[in-house]
Amino acid sequence: MAPARYLDGADAGLNAAATLPSHRGRGAQSALIAARAAAAAEAGCRHVHAETWKPADGAPNPALANLLRAGLTPLYERDNWVWRAKA
């Protein structure tokens, strides 16, 4: 899957990137974040935004950790909503 990047004037959204479980922990997501942010800057964007799953208390969220390491700053938290089909 190609990672998505949405550009709108001075804003860029980093959307829909994933790494296969067998390839995680090798820096691919961090590299994708950096590449998409650099491309957004080259396109004239001044702000980059993303969203990821809010981890449970004490649970890790590698995607969030990667975004924080890339320099993004959390602005707010929202509830996670999960749709479940009727059994």
From TrEMBL:
InterPro entries registered for this protein in UniProt: Acyl_CoA_acyltransferase (IPR016181)
Top-rank taxon, per record: Bacteria
SUPFAM superfamilies to which the protein is assigned, alphabetical: Acyl-CoA N-acyltransferases (Nat)
Name of this chain's protein: N-acetyltransferase domain-containing protein
